Amino acid sequence: MEKTEKLKVAVLFGGCSSEYAISLQSAYAVLQHLDGERYLPVPIGITRQGQWMRYEGGIEKIPRDTWLQDPLCHPVVVLPGHETGALMEWGPAGPSQVAVDVALPMLHGKNGEDGTVQGLLELAGIPYAGCGVLSSALGMDKDLAHRVAAQSGVAVPRSEVIFKEDRPEHWARSGRAVGYPLFCKPARGGSSLGITQVENPAALACAVREALEQDDKVVLEAAVPGFEVGCAILGRGGALTMGVVDEIELADGFLDYGEKYHRSTAKVHTPARLDADTAQRIQNTAAQVYRALDCRGFARVDLFLTPKGEIVFNEVNTLPGMTAASRFPKMLEAAGISFSEMLDRILAEAVRP
Question: Where is ATP bound in this sequence (predicted)?
């Protein structure tokens, strides 16, 4: 029987983003779980300054962020043109093409999760895993994602938008319109960076300034009573695979950057401590949001469940974390899909005509 050629998978990591370090952890986990019998990984690191490098050293250097110092690290660029589907590498022997079959972006936040890299790959004719340009851009913008979700019939929190050019008087009016307590968030950020829980008007200005350090568009969002739940989704259109619903139990405050990745006091229950009917309603709502935003491949939809049983949209992560502590692979694992099988499905979807 003829041996099938391995699929060349460009795993993209790093990037010009405040979530650079999380991207390294996600890429490391993915590279650990890619089936060596089926795939040939082509790790592509992007520095904090935006330089693309092909990395052929040991993957253990990626999460330690020492990969760039390895001599087996050479500059690459994406070649434009739908005929090539390749990268150009500048190695010791000079420039050479590196063919890839599919790209698997493990880039979180700006310049990776927001449609920019997806657009570059589209222009290069390289198939890629995950959401497309439009859904990535929409999902990254909390304001626009909420508008689309609301149009599809899903409940969203009351909110107002602040831009960098707006004066503090507008901040105060927006805060009054939303009501306290509220959350002040960078519109296009991730990993809860720059988010502040604001209890009263006196604390608003400081929170807005902190959010503006992450983005020039800020969302003031009414606090929703209850707790956060999430759902991992694979596939596109009508053929979706749903992970089990998980639940975040917080001792206090909200799921900030430290709690997301270190779990000092927060607990994530997978599956959520919910009855079957409520869990099904959450999955249905997550699928409704996923389709409304035209997501494909994979994404995690986060929602709130109120004490009255209402389901309210929070956000969609079009490139969710894949670290050892990440919720997305754990929700699928609880549904009987291993990390390696999850990657198989994601890549199969990416190269499907």
Answer: 142, 183-185, 191-192, 221-228, 314-315
**pTM for this prediction:** 0.91
Q: Give the whole-angstrom CA distance, residue 159 versus residue 146.
A: 9
Binding residues for ATP: 142, 183-185, 191-192, 221-228, 314-315
Residue 19 falls in the annotated catalytic set: yes
Percent of the chain with pLDDT over 70: 93
> Strand order of the sheet with strand 159-163?
159-163, 217-222, 182-186, 196-198
341 is catalytic: no
Q: What pLDDT is stored for residue 191 in this prediction? A: 56
Q: Is 159 a catalytic residue?
A: no
Q: Which residue has the higher pLDDT, 137 or 352?
A: 137
Domains and CATH numbers, the chain: 7-128 (3.40.50.20), 137-156+225-351 (3.30.470.20), 159-222 (3.30.1490.20)
d(Cα 15, Cα 22) in Å, to the nearest integer? 10
Least confident of 83-92, 197-206, 226-235: 83-92
